[in-house]
Amino acid sequence: MPRDYDEKRDFIRVEVDCDIHFKPQGVESEQIGRLSNLSGRGMMFIAAEEIPVDTPVEIRIAAEKQVTAPLHAMVRVVRMAKQRRGDGYEIGAIITSVFDENE
């Protein structure tokens, strides 16, 4: 199926706006951020605090109004930047493994 735009990525990035629950490795408590986009290989979400590059992070995305399928996975941070507008941090991560729905 031909694309009507110039996409250089392997997977199309889909804009999303929903909560993401995440827990960086070495952190005891789960945190809540905001998922901005998602693709077949990765995601970008907003976190209140910095998460260093290469940090493994367990994430959970719950289906909100059936718009997003639930996802429980491990990701690895590949990019972190202070938001241009806002007090949070943009976290770019690649999906390294996906957990079974029962985990």
Structural account:
The chain has strands spanning 14-24, 31-38, 42-47, 56-61, 71-82, 89-98. By secondary structure, the protein is an all-beta fold. Strand 5 and strand 6 form a beta hairpin. It is globular. The N and C termini lie far apart (35 Å).
At a glance:
The chain has 103 residues and is mainly beta.
Order of helices and strands: EEEEEE
Please state the oligomeric state of the protein chains shown: single chain
Low-pLDDT parts are none
Class computed from helices, strands and strand pairing: mainly beta
Shape: globular
> Strand tally, please?
6
Computed CA radius of gyration, to the nearest angstrom = 14 Å
Our count of helices gives 0
Beta-strand percentage? over 45%
Q: What is the distance, rounded to the nearest whole angstrom, between the alpha carbons of the first and last residues?
A: 35 Å
Strand neighbour order, sheet with most strands: 1-2-3-6-5-4
Largest sheet: 6 strands, antiparallel, barrel
Please give the share of residues in helix. Answer: under 10%
| Average residue-wise pLDDT | 86
